[in-house]
Amino acid sequence: MVNVLIVDDEIHAVRGLQAGVHWDRVNIDYVHTAHNLKQAQERFNSHPIDLMICDIEMPQGSGLELAAWVKEFSPRTETIFLTCHSDFSFAKQALQLNSFDYLLKPVDYTELEAVIGKALGKMKKERELRSFEETHHHYRQLWETHQPVVAERFWLDLIQLKIPAVPQMISESLKKANLSYPDSVSFLPIYIQVRRWHKELSERDQQIMGYALRNVLEEAITEHKTGAAVIPVEGDSFLTVIPVEGSIVESELRAGCDEFIHNANRYFYCDISCYIGKPVALHEMVPMLRSLQRLDKDNITEINRTLVLGNVQKCEGKMRQAPLNEWAEWMKQGARDKLAGQVTHYLECWTSDGRSVDAQMVHSFYQEFLQMVFFVLQSKGLQAKHVFAQNLLTDRPASVLRSLSSLQEWVRYVLEVAMNHIHATEENMSVVEKAKRYITDRIGEPDLSREDIASYVFLNPDYLTRVFKKETGISLSDFLQQRRIEYAKELLINTDQSVSDIALASGYSNLSYFSTIFKKATSYNPVDFRKRARVT
Q: Quick one: pLDDT band at residue 439, thresholds 50, 70, 90?
């Protein structure tokens, strides 16, 4: 449930917001109101407030005072300020209090709804991050205090072939580990592979989250199964071994695996595949594990699914050859729509018959496709390292080849970036000109960065900086500074806006810094420049 608090000393203004904003459209469940600082504090004491929409100028305590109190009392509450005056000092204090936005009255309700939507989006991301961090912290503490047990050591030695696959020697190792199983018992292996983490994790964090997954796996699959074990294999994979006697209820095993996959998706932000093998004797465990690992290697389409060895349809025949020569010609000709349609159709044919595609086929297509793109770029006098970010060619292949959906997304992206570069000149606009236009369109954004500009024109930042300096004679940062000053000069000459408003409009949130930079560039402070410009 999302709660909003409207605070304004003008009753009609509060009622206007209540009636004018489509609260259900922006997923607000309840709207509270207050007309002064004291009433607002009472609402916070009685209700959890997620978002506060607050007037700044109120007689019994300003909105800024209230926001300062809220920052201490309810730090997760987002604040949107409303005011009748475009006073730079108010904006500056609002920024210092980490307010979400600052709108002038009378408020456009559609604009306010858009701002509310962005605020709720930010809160949702922060909640997900807090949940992830809390889970990570909990399992990190468990991981740091966890000590390897003798049983785990036995299973690790077995699958790493430190114990020879000889029944007599395995029996001796079982005795040393104080483990005992009846002669009639066989062992059912389930291989679990993390296919992708949805969040960037360090190596240590992956180990911690792997430990967390292992705990969930033990609860989901091995609970109430005496003698069962979960063993880390390599990377982000696990082997679950379940002692069995008699028949196996496959549906129960699949249900346990499916529950584990669901929990991994929901709480640990990762994609998982589970593979159920056949019951074997201990000396046959390693060959069975290798069979499950080969099944995982060839699995390109069945992500977040449970597969049973022997029930998976094998690849038959050859995949239809991609018409790469045609694609290359369409790239050269700039036939974007035709190329996009054909590539999409070709890849969707894979999806509709996903079980006929294996890892070897996908890897072959990946290599041939890249060669085609590099050939077209070279024919246009372009080098791939100058067109694509480095990680696209070095870090990504492993993740791209793990699933069909990742490959499809990557192919479309590569084609789009390559064609944007190939036809930039032919479309009468160079990369530098595109960068200039992007800067001009966003001149009022104070956090506009070199990385933002480079991302827009699909170049890495260092290469864009070199190209820009070579073509214009000035650095990218100097050009950005020049455009901000030129825009400020235009506003000073042609409008009656205050200097503080012009500073904000030009991308400077600090008025003092703006004045210093302006004087350095023009030899006059903003006020004197305006006076001299209007006299002449």
A: confident
